[in-house]
């Protein structure tokens, strides 16, 4: 008896602890706003880190190109100790000695004229930096769109779960209507079974919604670097707002400010500068160099010999096995490819901007239609219920009307978030916030 009481007590404590833990677990779940989610996703994105690395590499390339305008300076020093044996005929003996040497030097050289190659290479390096920055901006918008999709996806599941819960309440109301008519002897067994089945299906939809919302929150957590589910903080206003841009202005922005177009244009500029750099091989190179050297046989700075040099050199390859011609031709072909890629990028940006704009307009109109459809469906459900209570409609009519109302509510939720995602897509294409 004592053991049974003790076992019961332990189970009660465990259950109490379990139910006390559930609210705490829910309370400790991380909640982030949209801006926080985007900031954290940008920091955690491997693709963003790669683009940052690409920008850094391009900046180093530009610094190297700038360094070609500066003189090269180098210092050198050496010291050697070497034994030297010689035969002394006066003593008929081998005399041991050494032959030491110490030297130091400082030299500098500067390319006076390189046919404009350094200027062309510096221009190409600058274009590479701007192209890398544009690709980084493009990746930033891509991560932002992805984060918004997951953030709004989690909010969408919350709203759909609320629709499912409202469906349960509506199904319970239908059951209550059927029960009252059954008491009056005006409802059939089939009415009760159909209403009961609809209530069971509504509960099943709630379970599916709860599972979907947890999966969406886990996806959002993964995006921002969290190992568990993350709840999105609902923004204060999710209503559609005017763009302030006409379709023609959107097309112009897509061709001029789209990160993909900017990157392609800068790649074309870099290719053009590479052609100019290759053509400088047909011009002579003129360089200036100077140096100062010191040498001594003793490890001392006093004494020794010094020398200096000053030289001006010019070189011109009269024939180098068609290497110049090959370099110029390869650079021209690369420039043609980048020009075609730039044209394709502009056309693609226009196409994507038009598609995103049309989706945005359609979604905005779909919200209005869904709002009206929801109101009409709910009113229809009310009327059909009243007709069923007076025997002018069947339970099948009620369930059909109930299904239409549920679908209208679902469509309203879907249209709202489709609009938000379409707006985010358009912002990514244009490379600016709207």
CATH classification, class level:
Mainly Alpha
Mean pLDDT: 83
Shape: elongated
Give the name of the CATH superfamily. Answer: Outer membrane efflux proteins (OEP)
CATH architecture: Up-down Bundle
Helix content: 55-70%
Rg value: 40 Å
Please give the number of β-strands. 8
Number of domains: 1
- Major sheet: size, sense and barrel closure? 4 strands, antiparallel
Order of helices and strands: HEHHEEEEHHEHHEEHH
Report low-confidence residues grouped into runs of 5 or more.
1-27
The CATH topology turns out to be Outer membrane efflux proteins (OEP)
Can you give a write-up of this model?
With 434 residues, this protein is of the alpha+beta class. It is 68% helix and 15% strand. It has helices at residues 2-27, 34-44, 46-67, 117-183, 189-223, 247-257, 259-279, 323-389, 395-430; strands at residues 30-32, 72-80, 83-88, 93-98, 101-113, 230-232, 285-296, 305-315. Strands 2-5-7-8 form a four-stranded antiparallel sheet, with no helix packed on it. Helix 4 packs antiparallel against helix 5 and helix 8 (323-389) packs antiparallel against helix 9. The relative contact order is 0.12.
């Amino acid at each position: 008896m004592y053991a049974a009481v003790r076992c019961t007590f332990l189970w009660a404590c465990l259950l109490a602890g379990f139910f006390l833990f559930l609210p705490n677990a829910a309370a400790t779940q991380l909640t982030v706003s949209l801006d926080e989610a985007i900031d954290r996703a940008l920091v955690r994105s491997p693709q963003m880190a790669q683009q940052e690395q690409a920008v850094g590499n391009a900046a180093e390339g530009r610094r190297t190109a700038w360094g070609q305008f500066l003189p090269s300076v180098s210092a050198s020093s050496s010291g050697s100790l070497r034994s030297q044996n010689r035969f002394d005929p006066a003593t008929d003996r081998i005399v041991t000695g050494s032959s030491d040497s110490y030297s130091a030097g400082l030299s500098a050289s500067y390319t006076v004229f390189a046919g404009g190659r350094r200027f062309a290479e510096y221009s190409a390096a600058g274009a590479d930096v701007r192209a890398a920055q544009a690709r980084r901006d493009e990746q930033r918008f891509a991560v932002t769109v992805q984060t918004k999709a997951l953030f709004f996806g989690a909010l969408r599941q919350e709203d759909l779960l609320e629709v499912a819960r409202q469906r349960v309440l509506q199904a319970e109301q239908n059951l209550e209507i059927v029960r009252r008519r059954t008491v009056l002897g005006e409802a059939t067994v089939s009415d009760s079974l159909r209403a009961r089945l609809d209530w069971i299906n509504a509960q099943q939809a709630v379970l599916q919604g709860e599972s979907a919302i947890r999966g969406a929150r886990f996806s959002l957590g993964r995006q921002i670097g969290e190992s568990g589910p993350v709840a999105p903080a609902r923004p204060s206003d999710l209503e559609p707002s005017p763009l302030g841009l006409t379709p023609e202005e959107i097309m112009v922005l897509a061709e001029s400010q789209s990160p993909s177009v900017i990157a392609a244009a800068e790649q074309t500029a870099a290719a053009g500068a590479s052609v100019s750099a290759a053509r400088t091989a047909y011009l002579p190179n003129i360089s200036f160099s100077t140096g100062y050297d010191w040498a001594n046989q003793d490890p001392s700075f006093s004494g020794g010999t010094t020398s200096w040099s000053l030289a001006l050199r010019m070189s011109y390859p009269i024939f180098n096995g068609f290497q110049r011609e090959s370099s110029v031709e390869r650079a021209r072909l690369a420039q043609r490819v980048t020009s075609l890629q730039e044209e394709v990028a502009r056309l693609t940006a226009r196409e994507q901007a038009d598609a995103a704009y049309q989706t945005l307009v359609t979604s905005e109109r779909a919200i209005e239609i869904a709002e009206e459809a929801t109101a009409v469906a709910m009113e229809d459900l009310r009327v059909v219920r009243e007709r069923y209570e007076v025997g002018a409609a069947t339970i099948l009519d009620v369930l059909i009307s109930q299904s239409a109302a549920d679908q209208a509510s679902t469509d309203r939720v879907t249209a709202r978030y489709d609009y938000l995602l379409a707006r985010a897509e358009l912002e990514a294409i244009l490379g600016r916030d709207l």
